[in-house]
Amino acid sequence: MQIRRTGAVFAMAAMAAGLAACGGGDSYANTLEKVKGAKEITVGTKWDQPSIGLKKGTADPEGFDVDVAKYVVKELAGGQDVKITWKEAPSSNREALLQNGTVDIIFATYSITEARKPKVTFGGPYIIAHQDTMVRADATGISKATDLKDKRICQAQGSNSYKRITDPPPDGKLGLPAKLVGASNYSECVQKLSGGNLDAVTTDNLILAGFSAQEPGKYKLLNDPFTDEKYGVGLKKGDKATCEAVNTAIAKMWQDGTAKQLLEKWYGKTGMEFPTSAPPAEGCA
Question: Is 204 among the domain residues?
């Protein structure tokens, strides 16, 4: 009986080793190793933001962040195809999704901030957006960001954009009194703006441009940017190897013209001016 039991233990150990070698277990030290070894990855992105990350029905999400993710992941794998499982990454859950292993990497309008750095290792940034303001096309009395004083603005769950209006530096920007109206995400913010429950939605111009382009003539952007929002690639805290590989991929994406092509693809009709070179990497601390 003892011999049989010992043999069974060795057999199970051998099977586990085989599964690990084939990518069947959680045996990878970081996301880079997983991409190269298992040729698969779970990516978090937005599912509710036109031109950034929008999922329709059973199809994969599509948008600028999604296309950037596809490019970077393929570069991590040395140019080989990788199976991507897409997961929704709402602003309020991004840190938790990385920490609990639900996703391996996040491309989701994820601004690099000092407050987030203790919880997340950021690659990038891959683009610098700028906070702007969107109002209804027939709105009067709001022509610049400082006109938002005492106005109803949206507070999207998990987003810090409203703080740029209401708080002073260093965490905020303008330090204006405003009436905050809660919403679960920016899709709900835009719905409330359409219904007259808000005076304005203020967040990154790439997000607002996507919503505005979806319903031409219904909304207008003030084109009064007042912050720099560094969109980073979210990784589990401490994953420096993957972060450095991500930064190499981002640099190549700008050098080979892909970044410009993707911006034209998703925002070419908005009249926005695009950067011509990669933003400086933050470093993988």
Answer: yes
